[in-house]
Amino acid sequence: MRPLAAISRDEAARIEAVFTDIDGTLTDAHLRVPASVFGAMEAAQVAGLQVIPITGRPAGWCDMIARTWPVDGVVGENGGLYFRREDASHGGHTMVRVFAQDGETRRANRRRLDELSARILEAVPGTALASDQQYREFDIAVDFCEDVPRLPGSEVDRIVAMCTEAGCTVKVSSIHVNAWFGDFDKGSMCLRFGRDVLGRDFGAADADRAIFFGDSPNDAPLFDLFPHSVGVAGVRRMADRIPTLPTWITDGDGADGFVEGVERLLSLRSY
Fold first, then answer.
1. Range of the domain at 111
2. 184-212 burial code (b ≥16 CB/10 A, e <16)
3. Number of domain units in the chain
4. pLDDT at residue 210 in the model
């Protein structure tokens, strides 16, 4: 991982979209999104950049984020969906919602996931389903440190193993183990958003037209997809669980690292 300060003016000039994880990347030490992050997002939009969070957080959160944050859309549930606000002719707006699976498939998978989550909670004392579980369409999120005392890595590995044995796709974030049935991930829905909304193929010639900020193992598909992938400093904490590390790394952690990165990008583009 190279310091983000080394990114060149020519590289920065080609970037059109800023994709970013949320938890651990836009949040501060108190797990809150500070005003500086919203300021950086707005500044990026004013400079002509698209801003799209890509998160493991649920559909319920994504509806609010797409409606009220200074963003151009949001990919949620580790690639299960994207939402974006679209201006309407009556002066208001409509919400465009795109899902990786149809409703019948989601309902059938939910029954299987409910059975799996019951087995996990019985087998791994001290864990719990994430407090935002009821707002999810696609997955289960097993909390190992957000609202419960932090579990040891061996217990996180045990949860991952149970989900894998059940046939799930499994990703580990900085706070949750996410598991779902299906082959989508953050990368696949990011590519779909790029094609549908931005008219870009980020999996081919346009890959260097975007930059991605992240911090944890569930960001690996995007660290692999984008040549301009950026880890905030905290990415080092879980580096041994990340198969593809980011190209760049910031000096600051969490929200500070994201703001640092956007400021660096905009300063190079202003010449």
1. 103-180
2. bbbbbbbbbbbeebbebebeeebbebbbb
3. 2
4. 97
